[in-house]
Every structure is written in C-alpha cells, then in structure tokens.
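Running co-folding for adenosine monophosphate.
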Amino acid sequence: MENCLFCKIAEKKIPSTAVYEDDDLYAFKDINPHAPVHLLVIPKQHFSTLSDCTLEDAPLLGKMLALAPRLAEEFGCAVRYDEQGRPAAGFKTVINSGPDGGQEVYHLHLHVIGGAHPWRGER
Ligand code: AMP
Ligand code: ZN
C-alpha cells in the first residue's frame, strides 16, 4: 500500500526499532511510548483497520495476539504470579479501530503496553 507509514516501516523504508520479525509479522517500539514497554505488532499485509479483516484472517490475527505474551516476557512485563498464585503483574493489548476507536495510523496494529499500571500512563 503506497503512502502507508506502517507498510513503509515493515519494508524498512522508514526506520524503526525492530523487536520481532517473521514472514507475516513485524513488531517495533512505539515512537511515543505511553508506558515503560510500548510495542506495536503489525501484519506485513496491509489492512487499514480491524474491520477490514474477515474470519479468513483469524490465523494471522491469532498469531499477532499470540506474539504479545512472548514479547511481554522478553521485555519484562509478562504476567507473573505471587506466592499465593495470584496474578501480580502484566501488560495491556489494544487495537484501536476507526476514528471513534482512537485509531491514528490506518494500518492494523496491536499495541502491547506494559510496566506499572500502564492503563494509568504511569512510567
Ligand atoms: P493508534 O492511535 O492506535 O493508531 O496508534 C498509532 C501509534 O503509532 C501511536 O502510539 C504512535 O505513537 C505510533 N507511531 C506513529 N508513528 C510511528 C513511528 N514512525 N514509529 C513508531 N511508532 C509510531
Ligand atoms: Zn499499510
């Protein structure tokens, strides 16, 4: 897709800090992090929004989601359990869709946000 920022990032025409890549996906650090860990996972195939995906895309979407805990583990914000076996840390996964969903870049992307209380914007 011409003139798509994230297509250009996936094609390395615009620089980014890569954290993962395979044939289908590319993941990189968000340029304006909202938390100590803020990564974006994108499909190399261009989809403008989640609404442009169909059930046939479920394996690709599942792969994006399944990558999130692996990245969280690597970046130190995976779900951990305390001595009582209760979840004691974790991360947030978000896909903003369309203007009312707060989407700014129109190439499907999954935010992986971690650190202390990332939903409060604490750093
Ligand atoms: P959204 O509001 O869900 O569309 O999120 C777009 C995200 O892309 C924001 O968190 C931006 O900080 C991030 N972003 C925009 N441009 C770049 C870039 N060149 N490299 C990395 N992240 C970017
Ligand atoms: Zn694109």
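Result summary
The chain has one domain: 5-118.
The longest strand covers residues 37-43.
Job closed.
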